[in-house]
Every structure is written in C-alpha cells, then in structure tokens.
Design brief:
By secondary structure, the protein is α+β, with helices and mostly antiparallel strands. It has two domains: 8-85, Elongation Factor Tu (Ef-tu), domain 3, CATH 2.40.30.20; 104-187, Elongation Factor Tu (Ef-tu), domain 3 (Beta Barrel). Helices cover 21% and strands 41% of the residues. It has six helices and twelve strands. It is globular and about 60 Å long.
C-alpha cells in the first residue's frame, strides 16, 4: 500500500528482456537507502518487489502482463521514474490510499500553463473515468492528484510547481503515457451500488433523486 506522495525520481539503468518478462534496474538514491530484497516499491505507480540491491541500485522482475498493461514496457535506459516505498506501520498518511495495481494506461492530451501552475488533460478509458469524481483522488504515474474536471473520455488535473519539479508529470508532454489507478474507495462504492441495483431498484432511485447518482 502507498499514499501517492513521491519520495524521489529514480533513473533507469537497464531493462533486460527475457522469456516471460524483463529485469528492470534503476538508481534510487533515497529509496535504496532503506530498501532490501522483498520490499515493495511503487515505480511509476506500479507495485514492484525488490529482487536485488547494490548500494543505490535496485532491481525488479517484470512480468509480460506488467509490461503490456503499464507504461513500464516503454522505459529505456536514462528514463526517469517516480518512486515511493510502501507504507510502514509508523508512516504518516498523506495523499490517498494507492494499491500500486494500475487500472489502465492513459495519455496526456493537453498541458496548459496557468501562471505558476499547469493544467493537464488526460485521456483515459471508461473503466477509469467511471470511478472519478470532481475533487476526488486519482493516481497518475503513482502521484496522488486531485481531479478537477471529469470528462466523457478523460479528466483534468492541476499541477503545483512542487509536484512539477519533483515528479515526471512536470516534464511529460502531449502524447506521453501515464499509468492510472482510480481511488479504491470509489471502486468499493461502485461495486456495492451495482449489487444494490440488482436487489433494490428503489434504493437506487432514492440515490438518483437525491443527486448522488446520474
């Protein structure tokens, strides 16, 4: 489990393809200081397990499924990535609960300067947008961000200078891909409502009349 508060940007040192997947190696000056084999680390929002540590270098196994369903498959030597170690019992809770299980890969379709801020539009499939609400949370490449607008085929976010400087969202441009994970609380609520819709149409009607559903 993670919070979406990025500790640092690491740098890919190698991606070695092999049967069934690949081995990803990266430099992580801060994350590697406390990491050990078996630990979970969020890499661009994907929960990966450390298989080897050598000073400030970490290695991870990637399955073909991970390569195909996230943007980790497009990483190359020199690529920068967002890193966050998993929560510990004494960790401060910030951001929102992020599982590291990516729902889909989206793409940046707009990036507009708003003074010191950046407004970013992201295109995403319906299986992600159905769980989004305005002012709700979403993880973009592992970054906990607040949804500004929910669109028919995407959403917008506003990036503060601190986030732009310390994460990949600051230098990614139009057309670049991002890993997306919708808020797990929204998924549970949606599943509950789907079950209730089959059991009690009157309950759903009440929610619609109250403006909670459309």
């Amino acid at each position: 489990m993670f919070t979406g508060l990025i500790l640092e940007m690491g740098e890919i040192t190698s991606v070695k393809r092999r049967s069934g997947g690949a081995v990803l190696s990266l430099r992580a000056d801060e994350s590697a200081s406390t990491a050990k084999p078996g630990d979970s680390i969020s890499v661009n929002g994907v929960c990966l397990t450390v298989i080897n540590k050598n000073n400030n270098m970490l290695s991870f196994d990637l399955s073909d499924e991970t390569l195909q369903s996230t943007n980790l498959g497009s990483l190359k030597t020199g690529s920068r990535i967002n890193l966050e170690p998993s929560l510990r019992p004494d960790s401060k809770i910030g951001g929102h609960f992020v599982t590291g299980h990516v729902d889909a890969v989206g793409s940046i379709r707009s990036k507009v300067n708003m003074g010191d801020m950046l407004k970013v539009g992201i295109e995403t499939p319906e299986k992600v947008t159905r769980f989004l609400v305005e002012k709700g949370s979403v993880a973009v490449d592992g970054i906990s961000l607040t949804v500004v607008d929910v669109l028919s085929n995407g959403f917008t976010i506003v990036i503060i200078p601190h986030t732009a400087k310390l994460t990949t969202i600051g230098f990614k441009g139009v057309g670049d891909t991002v890993n997306l994970e919708s808020d797990i609380l929204g998924k549970y609520v949606a599943k509950f409502l789907d079950k209730q819709a089959n059991k009690d149409s009157g309950f759903v009607k009440t929610l619609m009349e109250g403006g909670f559903l459309k």
